[in-house]
Specification:
Layout (H helix, E strand, L loop, with lengths): L4 E4 L9 H16 L3 E4 L13 H12 L22 H13 L3 E4 L3 H9 L23 H9 L5 E4 L6 E6 L3 E6 L7 E3 L7 H11 L4 E5 L6 H11 L7 E5 L2 E2 L11 H5 L8 E4 L2 E3 L9 H9 L14 H7 L10 E2 L2 H13 L3 H14 L6 H11 L9 H4 L1 H4 L6 H7 L2 H15 L6 H15 L3 H13 L7 H35 L1
Parallel strand pairs: 1-2, 8-9, 10-13
Antiparallel strand pairs: 3-4, 4-7, 5-6, 11-12
Length: 512
């Protein structure tokens, strides 16, 4: 497949939703699979809804996700400008062409006129062949009145003239042949009163001029595609019209309804790639701020709607590029399963180098105002990576290295008595004599003592662990002792009996 050119064309009206990022991902995979170009185009013609910082957020999100943009507002390219607000003169040229050829017309209706029209027929009436002759437009008015309104600066929009009695069909790469009857379509506004085009005109003109070969976008645009096909026909571009592929929805965890921007707050998980702060709707966590690897998130996202046709679940970005095909994208919506996303992330973390985990987890210690170096975290990450679901888990999982211990009092009450105290104190003496304070030698010393003394492993081992970590369960005890170092580990082991006695005494006092 030659000359593949695809575009990701978001509107900067807020943070990029995870569904938008999946659209970018599928476009990116398709472009790279066919050695094509991945283009970022900012569709900012709806000036009233623009949000400051949203365009920068989109660019950062693509970069964080590992998508290299070939052309766009921040990198340039031969088909710019790549912001639609900077292409106004280009669109006006084609609007005039459509009006002059009788494919579009001026409409001077006021908001009151439009409301009165909609009230006819319980609000289901639309601006089309059945109503346009009764409205104020260049089709119902004579040429002199039309020109007078234009000359005097009367507000107007330009509408696409949708022919009656026709069927419009196109081949969708995912859904097969799709057909609309023009009786279902309204005369869409293609130029607004502010002189800027609507999405319908702008994206068709831009796709043509930027030589877009495939339009891969969300299912919500499927119903608009008939108008776009009409625009291609009206412009005489039907022979170079791009191929369309409309992606299935990402559904709520219940499987009912589209996953919305508000669902993250409702269900307690991120629906944005990056944290969004201080927007008009407030602040929202992103996958980055809750501790996800971008590689894991992309792997998870790729499988929301696309099936590789094998049992493989773990993919690198290169493997996704090599394996991806539009034909394997399903038609049905894909349920957003956050637990599955966490599973992917845990798999990535468990296979990462400890140095990389430490680098990614370090900011979460800073958030808790813990002054810990990345170098100090490396051995801790090696120990705990198999227990982490996110990078943000590490401060909590490793608390016993840095914070005051909170002892497991139930286990202490069960295990701590005169006999266990005696063995514990004897074992501490043995541990002080360990020359090479390494996990293997510490473990051997403990095992030898348990074997020669005739006690059970469970009589003493939980107490040794609680003394170091506060908890009777957790990662390898002897690796923890090594990371703490001889001085800190022995200090904790020696001081623990005093705390154990206090807990027993307190329990006895309460019973009395």
């Amino acid at each position: 497949m030659s000359n593949v050119r695809v575009r990701f064309a978001p509107s900067p009206t807020g943070p990029l939703h995870i569904g938008g990022l999946r659209t970018a991902l599928y476009n990116y995979l398709f472009a790279r699979k066919h050695s094509g170009s991945f283009i970022l185009r900012i569709e900012d013609t709806d000036q009233a809804r623009l949000v400051s910082g949203a365009e920068e957020y989109i660019i950062k999100a693509l970069d964080w996700s590992g998508f290299e943009v070939d052309e766009g507002p921040h990198v340039g390219g031969p088909f710019g400008p790549y912001r639609q607000s900077e292409r106004k003169s280009i669109y006006l040229q084609y609007v005039r062409q459509l009006v002059d050829s009788g494919k579009a017309y001026y409409a001077f209706d006021s908001s009151e006129d439009l409301e009165a029209m909609r009230r006819q027929g319980d609000g289901h009436v639309k601006y089309d062949a059945s109503t346009r002759s009764s409205m104020r437009n260049s089709l119902s008015l004579d040429k002199q009145e039309t020109q007078r309104l234009l000359d005097t600066g009367h507000p107007y929009v330009v509408r696409l003239l949708v022919p009656s009695g026709r069927s419009i069909s196109f081949q969708d790469e995912i859904r097969g042949e799709v057909t609309f009857d023009t009786i279902e379509l309204d005369d869409k506004v293609i130029l607004k009163a502010d002189g800027l085009p609507t999405y319908h005109l702008a994206n068709v003109v831009d796709d043509y001029l930027m030589k877009i070969s495939h339009v891969i976008r969300g299912e919500e645009w499927l119903s608009s595609t008939a108008h776009h096909v009409l625009l291609y026909e009206s412009m005489g571009w039907i022979e170079v019209m791009p191929k369309f592929a409309h992606l299935p929805l990402i559904l709520k965890p219940s499987g009912k309804g589209k996953l919305s921007k508000r669902d993250g707050q409702k269900f307690g998980f991120p629906v944005f790639p990056l944290k969004w702060s201080d927007g008009p709707d407030g602040s929202f966590d992103g996958f980055d701020s809750v501790g996800f690897s971008p590689d894991a998130m992309i792997n998870f996202l790729a499988l929301l709607g696309w099936n590789p046709g094998t049992e493989q679940e773990m993919f690198t970005l290169k493997e996704l590029i090599d394996t991806f095909s539009i034909e394997q994208i399903g038609k049905s919506g894909a349920r957003f399963d956050y637990e599955k996303a966490l599973w992917f992330n845990s798999q990535y973390i468990s296979n990462q180098e400890a140095e990389d985990i430490a680098l990614a987890a370090h900011p979460f210690f800073r958030q808790e105002e813990k002054n810990i170096s990345i170098a100090d975290l490396v051995p801790i990450c090696a120990l705990l990576r198999d227990r982490m679901k996110t990078y943000a888990d590490l401060p909590g999982l490793s608390h016993f290295f840095f914070d005051e211990l909170i002892f497991d009092q139930n286990t202490i009450r069960k295990k701590w008595n005169q006999e266990s105290r005696s063995h514990y104190e004897n074992l501490i003496v043995v541990l002080e004599e360990v020359v090479d304070f390494q996990p293997e030698t510490i473990k051997q010393a403990v095992s030898d003592y348990i074997h020669t003394s005739g006690i059970r492993f469970g009589d003493i081992f939980p107490l040794l662990r609680i003394a170091l970590t506060g908890d009777a369960k957790g990662p390898d005890l002897f690796a923890i002792a090594e990371i703490l170092g001889r001085q800190r580990a022995m200090s904790r082991w020696k001081e623990a009996p005093t705390e154990f006695d206090r807990i027993i005494q307190s329990s006895e006092n309460q019973s009395a």
